[in-house]
Every structure is written in structure tokens, then in C-alpha cells.
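Justification of computing resources. Each target in the renewal requires a structure prediction run like the one illustrated here; the chain below, 525 residues long, is used simply to show the kind of job we budget for.
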Amino acid sequence: MFRSEYADVPALATPIHEAVLGRAAADFGDTPALIDATNGTSVTYTQLDTFHRRIAAALAEAGLRKGDVLALHSPNTIAYPPVFYGATRAGATVTTIHPLATPEEFAKQLGDSAARWIVTVSPLLEVARRAAELAGGVREIFVCDRAEGHTSVLDMLGSTAPEPDVTIDPAEDIAALPYSSGTTGVPKGVMLTHRSIGTNLEQLRPFVPIGQGDRILAVLPFFHIYGLTALMNAPLRYGATVVVLPRFDLAQFLEAIQTHRISGLYVAPPIVLALAKHPLVGEYDLSSLRYIVSAAAPLDAELAAACSARLGLPPVRQAYGMTELSPGTHVVPLDEPNPPPGTVGKLLPSTEMRIVSLVDPGADVGTGTEGEILIRGPQVMKGYLGRPDATADMIDGDGWVHTGDVGRVDADGWLYVVDRVKELIKYKGYQVAPAELEALLLGNDAIADAAVIGVLDDTGNEVPKAFVVRSPQTPDLTEDEVMAYVAERAAPYKKVRRVEFVDAVPRATSGKILRRELRDREKQR
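Resulting C-alpha cells:
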């Protein structure tokens, strides 16, 4: 068993809105908390504290009660944090929705989470309306901007309703309900309590110190647990200024760094690639940057080194975790002068890890030997919503989370993630469940059978590839037709980007797809 070399931290048994904003007005006052990089609009800490309380009051007046689920369906905006914290202060659980979700995908999450309220933005309103119709049970749809017939969050800021007095049990009550595929299967609601999220902030504090004067660029999505923690909860808890971008556009991203004198970046590997190689980078003044942290997907050590060298920065730090772990378990400390290339860091405080054999399940292995990574600590999720069997598959009787990732630990305690046992595809940091795409493909009468795995494209990103068996009635089915079929029915990041026609999909006698055979075939090529 591996234990953190850092002193344990006490569990933070505080509602997440208090954990983040409890000191906002008193300690940080007129310091800018949020800045919209697209138009310069800013919100101070005092305003953020007031705004989230008024939103909580307006939601309660509308009928939201403790235990309700509110679906937050929006790209990154300066309204996102006050809506999130306002909802939790009113006693709601927030389920975060991908802004590119189709109405059908959105409806599945609404139905599974039993969400009764939606907050969206006007450009996404029709998707939200259609999803609500498909799911049923939604009482009201609010918008962050303006849309006829819908209450605006902007009007909520002037609410005179009393602030709700809600008793929250941080250890039991669910603050956030993001959806994750876990190690396999379709997306499931990950029950993250106020305590698990807040405690993870405490665990991360020694690794990435943030405070007043720091400026963080929020380009990764808030709806993803990485963005929610690293770009929203953590910086706002300690008085940093969060500069918000709705999406990644390289020129806009670089302009924001230059204009707002960004000091820290939390990104995914595709952005590291752009910073290392794109010629546009040289046209901007990025001298304000002090560090870069990359997570959400594996980062090649040579690419990390190229990025650091080009920008004249210390080595790009990596971090490791997963939604089910609130999310962090490992980070390369910012004060480490020369971390080993390729490492994802050291164990956070109060966190334990085992590396278990891939050939002798349950048997622990020592330093330098590869095996599946198991994690135990206070940041572990409460479980998957309504799926006790899936929860038991993920968390064993002793509380160990079986991550499905393969790693090794060196003699100094650095973790290296080298492969995945699990079947999950990570496209640019987004989770794509093969089972979900396979179910979609099998809904096409022209397809007799299908399997999906992740393969590397020319830029080193993992993309979904489908192995398709044509139906006898459609022998002329083309790759373009298969990709178009999926593109019309799934969010853009889930699109199948390669297709190979095969005579049969390899399966075990139980019917389970033998994806390892397909991956081995790809490696041989």
C-alpha cells in the first residue's frame, strides 16, 4: 500500500457554497472574482456572494426545495458559478450537462437524475425545451441571459424573496451530479457530496497554491469535474481572478492570456500541443504565465517538454484523477523544480493507493511494476445514482476504487499512468463510452454488428473507431454514411472518426466484445 508523504488534512464538512464563498465578501471584497474575456464584464467577490444568495432566494421562491435536482446546461459564462452556488445554497443537487448534448442525450440525463429544473442560455434553449419534453417532469426552464417566456437569472439578482434556510448534511447530501462512464458502460450519475468535493480542495491546496493576484484562464468547461474544481471552486475559494472563455479558440485564448496577464493555465493535452507547435503562439505576449497544469488525458513527456521550452516555463505539471474521485488523487507540485518526465504526480494528502497485478487480480505489486491503480480516500464518490451494482463493481468492500487505469510507482513515489484496463475513450479530455456508440450504431438497420475502440489519430489524440459488420441487405454501406449516421445523433465530441468494415466482431461466448483483440490488431498495424 502506498500512502501520501503529505500530512493528512481533516475532512471539510462544509456545504460547497460556504467552502468556496464563505470568506468572499469579507476577505476579497472588491477583488474581481470573474471576468468575461469576450466583453470585459467583471464580477467582484462581494457581488458574487450577493448574486448567488439572490439566485438561491429566487429559486426557492419558484418552488425549488432541498433534494431537487437542477440541470445546469451552459458553456462557460460568468453566470455559471453564481447559478451553481445559488442552487446548492437552496438545497439542490446540480447535474451538469454538456452544452453540445443532443436533445435525446440531454433527456436521458434529465430522466436518470430526475431533474425538475433547468438553467440554460438562449442559444441552447430549443435543445433544452426538446429535452424537457422528451424527459417529462421538468417544472421550469430558466435562462442566464434573456428569452421571451422564461425567467432570467439576471432578474433573479433583484429578488426580494428571503434567503432560504436549508440544513445540509455535507457528508450525505449531493452537491454535484456529473455523469461519467466509469470504467465501462453508459454514462452514470456520480454522486459527489459537499464533503467529498470540499475535502478534495483541501487536499489539493499544498500542491497548487492560489491566492489574490493570481489570474486563471477558464477555457476548459465548468461542466466537467476538472473545470469545476480547478477553474471554479479552487481559485474562487482563495481569492484568485477567473477569466472566463466559453470555448477554446486559439487566437482568442492567446489574446486572453496577453490582455488579462494570466498567471496559471489548467488545460488538456490538445492545448499543450497547440502551445508547443502552433505558429500563432509566437505573435502574443505570454510572459505573464508562471505555470501550466495538464490533466483529463495522458500527456506525452516530449510534448510537455517542447511546450515548456518554447514558453520558457518550468516543466508542465500533470495531474491525475477521475470524476468518481471528486476528482483529484495525484498532482505534480508547483514547487517541485525538476519532476521526472511523464509522471502524473504524487498522492494527495489523506489518500492511499494500491497497485494490483494484472495477471493475479487482488495481489499487490511493488514499486516499478505495472498494475491496476486502486485509490481510497475521503474524496471517493458516494456512489452511482440508482446503480448499486455498478457502484459495487467500482468500489470494493474495503472502500478501494478500481480505476481501470494501469500504472507504476517509482522508488520516490511518483506515479506513471501507462495504459487503461477500462474501455473508456478519452477524446480531447471528454469521455466517450464505446457501449453508447455501439448501441447507437446497432440502431441502424444497415449495420448487423459493431464494436468501437479508441485509436490514435495523426496528432496523437484518441478518437473513436468503429468496426462495422454490414447488413446483408446493404453491402454498399460506406464509411461516410456510418460516420454521418452517428454525427446526426450524438454530440460532436462523440463522433466516430474512423470506420473499418469487418466480417465479424470478435466476441466471447458470453457475448462480450473482445476489444483487446481489436486493440492488438491496431497495434500490429
